[in-house]
Write a structure and sequence with these properties.
elongated; 34% helix; Dihydrodipicolinate Reductase, domain 2; six-stranded mixed β-sheet; alpha/beta; Rossmann fold; homodimer; six-stranded parallel β-sheet; Alpha-Beta Plaits
Chain lengths: 435, 435
């Protein structure tokens, strides 16, 4: 157990943006409780950022400065590096790698870095007997890494479903509340600062995917592998999809899911999905994140909180620093990286369940007669069909809810349907979750 | 970091009821994942229960048997005792105390034991450098102990609100769904096994209180002290309370709350409370538990899961055993027990906010004229007043929603109102939460 006569833990901060400064603020403002809870002082000894002279609203004068963040990894007065720069490549990659090789612990909020280089970095950390912590990389305000690895650690996980991107959830919640279309809501969100100027990584589902592969590795012991992931974003959704989903007792959420199939493979996918209003995930509103986990003994647990922002992200970073201060060290992905399962994971093609399919069609007699045989030929059974509005000149939406079907069958059917002359554009396909 | 050449961790089980057998099942069924995740084998070497010959559906033949559970604490082949007997007194108390004195780790689901003897036992554990773990004592399926101590450990906690008794939540949810009264629903719950034959500890709020003092000690570093707690149960609620609460956009839940007052004191109380339907706590249904935590950097986090039962409780117990296997040890209540704050905590008298007050009165003119001056004299301002039904012969309910008021003022007013000849029985008082 840590005792108060232990030496202070010396921290270096790489990156002094929102996240880095947030971490610094907690270390200053909550220094006394951190010391009581860990038995040690935690002090910032060195920092690095792009611009030394910028006023960041905090006094950093007593910290040594490095122009090149990678130099932090070689300083004798540093035990832990907080990497708060972001980006899957350099300088973050080289900083983290060098720090671990130099037997320094690393705490990072960098999901992209770990989604691409996680296994290599985990091996280096474990070989050097230091920690590589990333609680802040997934849903900052929700301690989901520790929850899966420690809190639910006694369970074999069977399902994991998460709303892990606040920008998308804000857009979907606002579309539902206002009835406005995607493009309009995105533009407003950008003006309010809830969406980036280039929102591709968020609305395309990539950011959720980076997070999902980390959780999936932890929960199932499979290799974190972003390249093998099925990812769909929310940019093709219309206000009418949200309305029709509501008629079926559902809300639409961008869900990253990782589930264990009967054949033992782990299915990983990110997709806008219909979630029943009875599920706690349906009530995760605005910029919040929420994650639902199923285990063999615990049953289901659900956790909700702020996903991003200075405070929640910094809270997660310092929680990791505290574990390091207490001398707690765990394998990066829950089991030693050499034991991670290398078997291929499953994709959206393997997902089985009900689907929501929206087609944009010319409004003329015979359209259903053209579509129905294609569904039949792919053994897709229709549970219900809704056609909204009528217009001789404008295309109309047809929504089909299917009975249980397999991802590859419904996709093959949709490809055939898309080729029909009466069908305009690509069909929109969403899984209907039963959680 | 744990490595696979470490010796097995040797566990003794005291108590072989639902919880003890659940823990045994996880250790058997998930042995391979537990070993991968902790780097060690975990083996059960000794057991004790009241009846050795009872068939428990599992093969315990290879475990040494002790008639007296306290003897487990002195065995050389035991590193960890799982105390799954329950009860705040002997034999649980002496077993746990002796085990800690003999430098054996203890994992327990026994909230009453810790609510009454927690500080003494924590001191013994810390002096002997062993763990005393109790994740299973509060909301089994929710890893709330680890969440407060580790996940949100970087924060100063300002508020904590929990639905921590599945029996009460089942009764309240069923009353809302069926419109039936408390007594009828309790009787049905007893027949279904959701309530004990003697349900006093659950419906009276005592069980929630035991859990609250543990969370409160962890979150605020105050002395766990059940005697100083304000506790009210749900047995005076009527179906009409639930209906009227709904008209105000609220549900009624038995909430254990621990909040930091402006004067620095921690207010702890258990009471049926009105919770806005917009709060995630309002959607915790049936036997589920849910806990809402506010911290200075993280903002709000919410977590929901099964509170009791074999699987969730055993999941929490084995999570604790895994931390011990990894060599992780933390002060029992988050900070060394000598540093726990001994200042008095605040009670329901100090709670400030809106109140729901239901009076049973004779239905005759002038009742409101009698009540209103008493409220005025205690500086209680009425936000709204509802009188339901009219009958010359039967008493009727009057419900008053107040503006912000202090607990001691509204209680003094209610005492005065109870003395009026037109008022029958004791007024029912519930806080209205704004979370």
């Amino acid at each position: 157990m840590a005792t108060l006569d232990q030496k202070p833990l010396r921290v270096a901060l790489a990156g002094l943006g929102t996240v880095g400064i947030g971490a610094y603020k907690i270390l200053m403002q909550n220094a006394s409780v951190l010391e009581e809870r860990t038995g040690r002082q935690i002090v910032v000894t060195a920092i690095s950022a792009r611009n030394q002279s910028k006023d960041r609203g905090v006094d950093l004068a007593q910290c040594a400065w490095e122009d090149n963040p990678v130099n932090l990894a070689s300083r004798d007065d540093v035990d832990v590096i907080i990497e708060a720069m972001g980006g899957e490549n350099d300088p973050a990659y080289t900083l983290v790698k060098t720090a671990l090789e130099n037997k320094k612990h690393v705490v990072t909020a960098n999901k992209a870095l770990l989604a691409y280089h996680g296994v290599e970095l985990a091996e280096i950390a474990e070989r050097n007997n230091v920690s590589l912590c990333y609680e802040a990389a997934v849903a900052g305000g929700i301690p989901i890494i520790k929850m899966i690895r420690e809190g639910l650690g006694a369970n074999r996980i069977s399902g994991l479903y998460g709303i892990m991107n606040g920008t998308c959830n804000y857009i979907l919640t606002t579309m539902e509340r206002t009835g406005e279309d995607f493009a309009k809501v995105l533009k407003d969100a950008q003006e309010l600062g809830y969406a980036e100027a280039d929102p591709t990584l968020d609305i395309g589902g990539g950011d959720s995917g980076h997070k999902l592969v980390l959780l999936s590795a932890l929960a199932y012991g499979c290799l974190p592998d972003f390249k093998n992931l099925s990812v769909e974003g929310i940019d093709h959704l219309e206000a009418e999809d949200i309305e029709i989903a509501a008629e079926f007792g559902c809300r639409i959420k961008l869900i990253g899911q990782a589930t264990k199939l009967e054949d033992g493979r782990v299915l990983q996918m990110v997709a806008p999905s219909l979630v029943p209003k009875t599920s706690p995930l349906a009530h995760v509103d605005g910029v919040l994140n929420g994650i639902f986990v199923q285990g063999d003994f615990v049953g289901s647990s659900f956790v909700e909180g702020r996903g991003a922002g200075e405070g929640p992200t910094a809270s997660a970073i310092i929680a990791d620093v505290m574990e390091i201060a207490k001398g707690h060290c765990a394998p990066v992905f829950g089991v030693p990286s050499g034991k991670l399962e290398k078997a291929p994971t499953a994709t959206a093609q393997d997902w089985r369940g009900e689907f929501y399919v929206r087609l944009v069609v010319e409004d003329r007699p015979g359209v259903i007669a053209d579509i129905a045989p294609i569904l039949r030929d792919h053994t897709i059974s229709i549970e219900s069909l809704i056609q909204r509005g009528r217009s001789e000149k404008e295309p109309v939406n047809i929504v089909i809810m299917t009975h249980d079907a397999k991802g590859e069958d419904i996709r093959a059917a949709c490809a055939g349907i898309a080729d029909l002359p009466c069908v305009l554009g690509k069909p929109l396909l969403m899984p209907v979750l039963k959680i």
